[in-house]
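Materials and Methods. Structural model of HxlR family transcriptional regulator. The 119-residue sequence of HxlR family transcriptional regulator from Paenibacillus ferrarius was retrieved and submitted for structure prediction as follows.
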Amino acid sequence: MRETCVPTGVILKDTGFGYTLSLIGGKYKMTIMYWLSENKVVRFNELKRCIGTISFKTLSIMLKELEADGLIIRKEFPQVPPKVEYSLSNRGLSLIPLLNMMCEWGEKNSSPALEAVQQ
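The predicted structure was written out as tokens:
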């Protein structure tokens, strides 16, 4: 890890690294951001279907947190039945290269990939 990111004697949560983790940490936030980056604009139920294992309540909480942190945009249409769409904000889009790097690292270091390298 870079020395400048977490200097000695500094509490991790008070660093840029800690701040970033506070925004994208948790079981579903990065998954939600992934689906929004792939589909650009997604409605709540579409997102629920994409993720599959997430409850309605948890998805609602995660979306509210991501919106409060300025990572996603919630657009509500005044119609009956209500229509709400979610998309990444510019701030959220700026995290996508980081998520892509994490994906690449995972592909290179997953068990099958490691076995191929070690042989």
